[in-house]
Design brief:
Helix content is 30%, strand content 24%. It is α/β, with parallel strands linked by helices. It has two domains: 293 residues, Zn peptidases (Aminopeptidase); 200 residues, Glucose Oxidase, domain 1 (3-Layer(bba) Sandwich). α2 crosses α10 and α12 crosses α15.
Length: 532
């Protein structure tokens, strides 16, 4: 019953020699990048480095010039981190110090930017810890948290827009707000919604799982809020202890969550002492960047970025005897598309007015890390980056009918993509699953957080698309079976490539730089051009 989405992918069975040159070129890149020889291209490994060398060599052959300060490569360090020990927490009330119990009251979370972390301060409960002026919400209203430890609930309350939930659902973003308010640390209390999903007791055995960030050029591990890091997760028993003796009761906080009303906020009794250590391990990796310089004297100092992540998840648990997670659709085809767009630019003989940066990004699978590093330390002035068009795991196993352009509706990129799609006979349709918050889950979002209009162009649900995507996610996503023998529709792959070329060409040659829609949530929050 699942054969239908692949039945018309007739070109997939043809050997590369029988494919038209445009399609054969796309397949050739995927065939190499997703081969067993590259062992899944995990960032920080030699296998990834071989893939990076391949991409740089292809950029050279196509006719690009090095795009990373005179090099093809932008090196940076990955930092893996985890708790080095079970942290010690205690409550101090008057002359009494009350030890809290690890695994019963709390578990600690690592703080990579401050691996030997200590803090002591009064405790202030700030509800969900959200400051959202557009929605007339300020959970810090009336609270003084300077020098204090802020306690918050995870996630967001009911009724906020998807975009707000996507942004504030990240505890790191909430910690950044707490830091701006003068807090010294953040602790997260289990909410009712969190308890229904993953209760505190289920988290305890996995408290020391390994996370990854990137290192700044000075070697310091990056953290969104180094001055007020999230340092622990508090269960129901611990929350009861924290609220003892306070004017607000934990029972009232729970009751407000059940009703869907504002939770009470305020200072809690006593002070909290926390001390924890974090273990850090570094690995080297690199982004790959190629450049087509612009020709217009007034526009060539502006750069349009075309991006695709090069890494996958490497070698893992065996499935049917196969331990190599090849990552053909995720995201060898995205990198292949980027390279062939670059080739099409050069082959056209029409040099772009703006400069064009083609970037193969590292460590997307570890948390959008290569793009985040690139957006923090671009090879050109950050305000000269005018747009990012990202390609991440387009499902190309069926005849393409439409595309989803994540984020296009937020800026002037939307009409550009609609016109380019129409030229390829494709429709642009809304995100069919906004509740999944895909907009914040791919590399373009790193550019968004730097205020740069960005979009990720994905294949759409039309025709056989919805069923094909459902099947890929169930059977192949992050599995060894995501490899070159999937029934790729190479004609659809070529159409997808031409669409991205048309979008990039329009952006490089337009008289005006892209701008955020006035008042857009993300544009305003990150200071994007045109949003105010």
């Amino acid at each position: 019953m699942f054969a239908a989405p692949f039945a018309q992918a007739q070109t997939a069975a043809q050997p590369a020699a029988q494919l038209p040159p445009e399609q054969a070129a796309l397949k050739a890149h995927v065939q190499f990048l997703a081969s067993d020889a590259l062992r899944g291209r995990e960032a920080g490994t030699r296998d990834y480095d071989v893939a990076a060398e391949y991409v740089a060599a292809q950029m050279l052959a196509i006719g690009l010039v090095p795009g990373a300060a005179g090099s093809w490569f932008q090196p940076f360090k990955l930092v893996s981190y985890k708790p080095a020990e079970k942290a010690k927490w205690s409550l101090v009330r008057g002359a009494m110090e009350i030890p809290l119990q690890f695994g019963i009251d709390y578990v600690n979370t690592p703080a990579p930017a401050t691996p030997d972390f200590k803090a002591e301060g009064g405790i202030v409960f700030a509800g969900y810890g959200i400051v959202y002026p557009e929605g007339k919400r300020d959970d810090y209203k009336g609270l003084d948290v300077k020098g204090k430890i802020v306690a918050i609930l995870p996630g967001v309350p009911q009724g906020l827009p998807n975009e707000v939930e996507a942004h504030f659902g990240d505890d790191e973003q909430k910690a950044a707000i707490a830091q701006q308010k003068g807090a010294v640390a953040v602790i997260v209390l289990e909410s009712l919604a969190q308890r229904e999903q993953i209760p505190f007791e289920a988290i305890v055995p996995y408290y020391d799982y390994e996370r990854t960030t990137w290192a700044r050029p000075d070697g310091t591990a990056f953290a969104t809020a180094p001055g007020a890091p999230p340092v622990g997760y508090v269960g129901p028993a611990g929350a009861e202890k924290l609220f003892q003796g306070a004017k607000i009761r934990w029972a009232d906080v729970l009751a407000a969550q059940r009703r869907g009303t504002r939770v009470p906020t305020g200072a809690l009794a006593g002070t909290l002492r926390v001390a924890s250590k974090t273990r850090l391990v570094t690995q080297a990796t690199r982004n790959v960047a190629g450049l087509i310089p612009g020709t217009d004297p007034s526009l060539k100092a502006e750069y349009v970025v075309l991006s695709a992540h090069l890494d996958h998840v490497g070698v893992g648990d065996a499935v049917n005897g196969d331990r190599i997670y090849n990552g053909a659709m995720d995201n060898a085809i995205g990198v292949s598309t980027m390279l062939e767009v670059a080739r099409k630019f050069v082959a056209s003989g029409e040099k772009p007015r703006r400069s064009m940066l083609f970037v193969a990004l590292a460590a997307e699978e570890k948390g959008l890390l290569g793009s985040d590093y690139f957006a923090h330390y671009p090879p050109v002035a950050k305000d000269r980056l005018v747009a990012d068009v990202n390609m991440d795991m387009p499902i190309l196993t069926y005849p393409l009918v439409d595309v989803v352009a994540l984020g296009a509706e937020r800026s002037s990129l939307g009409p550009v993509i609609a016109a380019a799609a129409a030229g390829e006979g494709l429709a642009v349709v809304p995100d069919p699953s906004p509740e999944e918050m895909f907009f914040v889950r791919s590399d373009h979002y790193s550019f968004v957080k730097s205020g740069i209009p960005a979009v990720s162009i994905d294949t759409g649900p039309g025709g056989q698309g919805a069923e094909a995507q459902k099947r890929f996610l169930a059977e192949n996503y992050h599995k060894p079976s995501d490899q070159i023998d999937l029934p790729f529709d190479w004609n659809s792959a070529a159409r997808y490539m031409r669409l991205n070329y048309a979008v990039a060409r329009a952006l490089t040659d337009a008289p005006e730089r892209p701008r955020w829609n006035r008042g857009d949530f993300f544009g305003v929050r990150f200071g994007g051009y045109g949003a105010q």
